Amino acid sequence: MPRPFTRLAEPFAFVRQFTPSWFAVTMGTGVLALVMASLPWGGAPERRLAEGLWLFNGMLFLGFALLFGARLALFRDTLKPMLLHPVQSMFLGAVPMGLATFINGLLLFGVPHWGARAVALAEALWWGDVALALGVALLVPYLMFTHQSHALEKLTAVWLLPIVAPEVAAASAGGLAPHLAPEAARQVLVIGYLLWGLSLSLAFSLITLVLLRLTLHKLPGSEFAATSWLPVGPLATGCLGLLSLGRAMPEAFAGTTLEGVAGVARDLGLMAGLLLWGAAAWWLAMALLCTRRHLGQAMRFNLGWWGFTFPLGVFTLATFELAHRTGLGFFALAGAVLALGLALIWLQVMVRTLAGLWHGELFRAPCLEAVTCPSGR
């Protein structure tokens, strides 16, 4: 049996090789905790398990943030290769999205324990998350336009990661607003809608390109198998965002000149959410078919497999919200099937991640392969 970390014998090599793709672990784990807490039939045991998973995810995010910060502080020469890498740079979007799952859990699990202090922390973290999401959504596309090398035949849905981050923050705004004073809630909701529009408009453009690329150049290699699930993410998050933002609008704008608009936003949010859910369902069905084809090939595990979890998790949350808003049993049944599938996928991906962590196989930054440094091997 190989010794653990045999590939990381030199001091701090694991810090130098730490990549932002690790934050995808916090995205998948965080969304599973939220799904478990949203189970319509769930009781106290399920909620305690969900809360424990959320706490575990918070520790993961903190640990990853410290490792990423240490890499940038100790190995500044690794920043430029990461930013210019056509794939690794995309995973910078996973940082604010992983943080958003912690914020949502803080409102769900932390408020009953810590009350106003949890709300204040969630609000502060949300503004930080907005800044991170906007920064990534501007920086990475700018680098794509000016420095990185891309081609249509190499395009994958991983391009969606940096631009979906603002949309995830927008969905979190709908959960945060009901805990705030009306004036603060209105500000958060308006910014949430702006983030939603910014993100989803770009996501539709990229999804169109993904569809064109798949038609002209067929499926990418099996190492990118999970990318076929990524278009589900912005569509499902768009659905969930409209539902959560619209639900919070009437209370926040009660007694203002926009009170009537708030009611319309709630109702239109439901209608548009249904449309986006349908679009996400098509992409999910297609992702399942593509994954089935990839299974016939040699699919070697990598951190990209966490892409199987977050899109499915957000789609599940949107499905449960539609079940609550419409009262239709179809959505409740679909949500149950999706939640079970998410749990099974998360278990398999987490087991493989832990195995790769034990053997040190996952501490390898592709953007540094061409960089010569004594401590980088």
Summarize the structure.
This protein is mainly α and 377 residues long. The protein is 70% helix and 0% strand. It contains twelve helices and no strands.
Report on the structure:
- The structure is a single chain.
- Residues 1-9 and 372-377 have low confidence and may be disordered.
- This protein has 377 residues and is mostly helical.
- Helices cover 70% and strands 0% of the residues.
- α7 runs parallel beside α9.
- It has a single domain (12-368), classed as Glycosyltransferase (Alpha/alpha barrel).
- The protein contains 12 helices and no strands.
- It is found in: Cell membrane.
- Belongs to the tellurite-resistance/dicarboxylate transporter (TDT) family.
Number of domains: 1
CATH architecture tag: Alpha/alpha barrel
The sequence of SSEs as H and E is HHHHHHHHHHHH
Oligomer: single chain
Q: Write down the Rg.
A: 20 Å
Which structural class do you get from the secondary structure elements? Answer: mainly alpha
Spans of at least 5 consecutive residues whose pLDDT stays below 50 are 1-9, 372-377
Q: Superfamily at the CATH H level?
A: Voltage-dependent anion channel
CATH topology: Glycosyltransferase
> Percent range for helical residues?
over 70%
Q: Give the biggest sheet.
A: none
Main location: membrane
Keywords: Cell membrane, Membrane, Transmembrane, Transmembrane helix, Transport
Organism: Metapseudomonas furukawaii
GO cellular component, one term: plasma membrane
